[in-house]
Design a protein that fits this description.
- The complex is a heterodimer.
- Chain A is α/β, with parallel strands linked by helices.
- In chain A, about 20% of the residues lie in helices and about 35% in strands.
- In chain A, strand 7, helix 3 and strand 8 (about 130-135) form a beta-alpha-beta unit.
- Chain A is globular, with a radius of gyration of 18 Å.
- In chain A, about 50% of the residues are buried.
- Chain B is α/β, with parallel strands linked by helices.
- Chain B has a single domain, classed as TIM Barrel, CATH 3.20.20.70.
- In chain B, helix 7 packs parallel to helix 8 (about 245-255).
- Classes of the chains: A alpha/beta, B alpha/beta.
């Protein structure tokens, strides 16, 4: 199997966040929101493992998809060297996707930092659904894809930790305030663990359907090596599920969030 | 050209076996290539009872390799026999079952159960560095390996492979102990105990603090140990440690291995097993070898 595909565009979204657009019929024809691809950052032995990166957008008409990532380690530094026209080795689409809402349902989407990317693909893919989006970033400099989220949602609320853009503070606050007078049919979330945990607990208490996209260091990315473990409930006990293949999307009530 | 090899009473269609712990029970990689192509599959290490495994993070990337601390997460031997053997038997590939335990009695019990199952061989894992009890405690001394291998040998009706740890002073002493206790074959190396620290958080990357190193980084150590072991014992040796292509596999065979196991490289390249088989064939063609078995020990020193 040949996993090499052509890069059709690269873009810098902010100081640390970069986007790569890849043409791949193999991936665009079968991907669903919530899935990821596993990207080889180098042909050599440096940054040895593939990097799992969520699919951020799919354009079925020109058979392209986007991945966005934060430049923060060996692998993502190497990814920044890729240019339009280069070939890139990507396996996927991998993992389980989000449960798609039904028509005319009301959904809320809450993303923090680099957790926002799979959520864009999700809201892009739901038609005839009322979508309220809450995004949290560190500061104004870190705000990315605002127009895209605005375009694909009915309402967008942005919070920054330092208050340099939108509401000051964590994104959970405007989200919980909104919930005082709204009851969504489904909540989807991805981002830092403390954020996910609060949202999951809130939804479970009120019996609101909630799905969480989890993150963990991965090995094979396909479910064989068992390194990307994530605690899930099993009766009164727990077991370790595989983030790469049982997830990355899990129902909130299945997870043991610590 | 004849790629087949005979080891421990098993005839493998080629010398390439998927290494235990990297290949699950074969289901995941069966979506990437036809498992019929493999010489064999060594399945994820099994214990008598299901095991949860260690806390995550369980993996750390290191130069040209990885550290893992999975900790033998597995569904237990009974679930394996019920749920996985029928699937694995759908392929014309040898099924090698890797087993581990906390006590000698655990090893005896699991081997007794598997002796009645439809499998080709048992690989005794006395070298997992990621569990608190048993396993490496037996594998790190010749006495321990002799004891557990001897007890298991009495109840084992399948070819018995003993998988050795490199975390020892002299691996040949351990290999000889396995041979003296009745092992049909030894496989080596299991992972090298290692550690990686995140200097920003000043914490170990692995929740378990230490883990097993695998990947290209360990290959020269593994080739050396296979070379030493193959000279020290009469039973066949299965070599592994960082194999990423046919040339790497040939290197192990020249050093004395009768077959090889390939694992970690598959995380990066799911085609690695197929490419390794093709690479061995290519090397044989270019260097006038008719039989893969003739590569074993063909090193010129």
């Amino acid at each position: 199997m040949d996993f090499r595909e052509r890069i059709v565009k690269t873009e810098t979204l902010s100081k640390d966040i970069h986007l790569i657009r890849i043409r791949s019929e193999r991936i665009t024809d079968s991907a669903v929101p919530g899935q990821f691809v596993n990207v080889r950052c180098s042909g050599g032995l440096d940054a040895y493992l593939r990097r799992p990166i969520s699919i951020c957008r799919v354009c079925p008409s020109d058979k392209t998809f986007d991945i966005a990532y934060m430049k923060r380690g060996k692998g993502t530094i190497l990814l920044c060297d890729f240019r339009e026209g280069d070939m890139i080795d990507v396996t996927g689409p991998l993992g389980s996707g989000f449960t798609m809402p039904q028509t005319r349902e009301k959904i809320a989407v809450v993303g923090g930092g680099i957790g926002i990317f799979p959520l864009l693909y999700l809201i892009d893919s739901c038609n005839d659904v009322e979508k309220t989006v809450f995004l949290g970033f560190r500061s104004k400099d870190a705000v990315v894809l605002k127009d895209d989220f605005e375009h694909s949602s009915n309402s967008l609320v942005i919070a920054t930790d330092d208050g340099t853009f939108g509401i000051k503070g964590f994104v959970t606050e405007p989200f919980f305030n909104w919930l005082q007078s709204n009851r969504p049919d489904r909540v989807y979330t991805c981002g830092p663990l403390p954020m996910i945990k609060r949202i999951a607990e809130y939804c479970i208490e009120r019996d609101i359907f909630c799905e969480v996209s989890m993150e963990q260091r991965m090995g094979c990315g396909i479910g064989a090596c068992l390194v990307c473990a994530c605690k899930v409930k099993e009766g009164s006990d727990f077991s370790y599920a595989r983030v790469c293949s049982d997830g990355p999307v899990f129902r909130a009530e299945k997870l043991v969030l610590e | 050209m004849d790629l087949s090899v005979n080891i421990a009473g098993m005839k493998l269609k080629n010398p390439v076996i998927a290494a235990s712990g990297t290949f699950g029970f074969g289901r995941e990689y069966s979506k990437f290539f036809d498992l019929n192509m493999l010489g064999g599959i060594s399945v994820k290490g099994l214990t008598l009872e299901p095991r949860k495994g260690n806390e995550p993070p369980r993996i750390a990337e290191t130069p040209a390799g990885i550290l893992n601390s999975v900790g033998l997460q597995n569904p237990g031997v009974h679930a394996f026999i019920r749920d996985e053997i029928p699937f694995l038997r759908g392929f014309g590939t040898a099924v090698i079952v890797n087993v581990a335990g906390n006590t000698v009695d655990d090893y005896r019990a699991i081997v007794e159960i598997l002796s009645g199952a439809d499998i080709d061989a048992i690989e005794l894992n006395v070298s997992c560095p990621n569990v608190k009890e048993g396993c490496l405690l037996f594998g790190s001394t010749a006495k321990g390996v002799f004891e557990v291998t001897g007890v298991v040998r009495k109840v084992c009706k399948k070819p018995l492979i003993v998988k050795l740890s490199p975390n020892v002073t002299d691996i040949t002493e351990i290999a000889k102990a396995a041979e003296d206790a009745g092992a049909d074959c030894v496989s080596l190396i299991n992972t090298l105990l290692g550690m990686s620290i995140d200097i920003e958080t000043r914490k170990p990357v692995l929740a378990n603090v230490m883990g097993g190193l695998s990947g290209p980084a360990v290959k020269p150590v593994a080739v050396r140990m296979v070379y030493e072991t193959a000279k020290a014992v009469r039973i066949p040796v299965i070599g592994m440690g960082g194999i990423s292509n046919g040339n790497d596999a040939v290197e192990f065979m020249l050093a004395g291995a009768s077959a090889v196991m390939v694992g970690t490289a598959g995380f990066v390249n799911p085609n690695v097993w197929v490419e390794t088989i093709q690479g061995i064939e290519q090397y044989m063609k270019e260097n006038g070898f008719e039989k893969a078995a003739d590569l074993t020990g063909a090193l010129i020193v």
